[in-house]
Design goal:
Elements (H helix, E strand, L loop, with lengths): L3 H18 L3 E10 L14 E2 L4 E6 L4 E6 L5 E6 L2 E8 L7 E2 L2 E5 L5 E8 L4
Parallel strand pairs: 1-9
Antiparallel strand pairs: 1-2, 1-5, 3-4, 3-6, 6-8, 7-9
């Protein structure tokens, strides 16, 4: 007779094995800040700037952190993940600004996921 604990362990091992069999995938992202400067925007001027040195957290949809990265000087980051659904969160340690919306992304097996996170600088 199986014990419930043994059954749960077997099911978890099977689930982990199935996820590992999907293989790693890459997730590329960019974190942008807007507006990039105070005051009125003029025609032809961009209103976004890359956010360098931002801490990007990659979370499962249940909130558990999978990995994290820091953006480069161009606001870009790349992480390796298994295929699945993720929420991308930029962490500013509780600061009011900049404020970034969590962004949902689905990474498919054998494909490179891409995400762009927009952050409000608080400038007006």
């Amino acid at each position: 007779m199986f014990r419930p604990t043994l059954l749960i362990i077997l099911l978890m091992a099977m689930w982990a094995s199935a996820r590992a069999a999907q293989g790693p995938a890459e997730l590329d992202g960019t974190v942008l800040l807007s507006p990039a400067r105070p005051g009125p925007q003029h025609a032809g001027e961009g209103d976004t700037a890359p956010m360098s040195k931002a801490v990007v957290r990659v979370l499962l949809t249940n909130g558990n952190e999978v990995t994290r990265a820091t953006t480069d000087d161009h606001g870009h980051f790349t992480v390796s993940v298994t295929p699945g659904d993720y929420d991308i969160v930029v962490d500013f340690h509780g600061a009011a600004f900049p404020r970034c919306q969590a962004t949902h992304v689905v990474v498919q097996a054998g494909q490179r996921g891409e995400v762009q996170v927009m952050c409000d600088s608080g400038m007006r």
